[in-house]
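Hi all, long-time lurker, first post. I run a small reading group and we've been trying to get comfortable going from sequence to structure in the token notation. Rather than ask abstract questions, I figured I'd post a concrete chain and ask someone more experienced to write out its structure so we can walk through it together at our next meeting. Sequence below, copied exactly:
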Amino acid sequence: MQILYTAIVLIFLVMGGIYLQDQPPFAVHYFMIALYFFVILFEFRGNPFPRGIYLLLGFLLLGNAMIQFFYAENNVIAGLISLLFAYFALQARRRLHQ
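-- Answer (accepted) --
Happy to help. Here is the structure in token form:
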């Protein structure tokens, strides 16, 4: 499972690097998704980040969704994915609280 999440992080980092010159808002989306999976990877390893990091990640993903909705061209699906992952990050924060 850890190998899968590590591969996902690397793939999204490479994809973000590819789109960085042509479509910066979409590159930010890829980088944010890579950050989400990076944080979740450490949670699966049994060494989760502090709860504040999950809150910060949720706000960053929410900001990314707003960028995708209002600034980027035709990236509504990417905005919805960011909103979904922001919700998952906040749920992970609540799960760590218990």
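A couple of things your group might point at:
The CA atoms of residues 17 and 27 lie 7 Å apart.
The chain has a mean pLDDT of 93.
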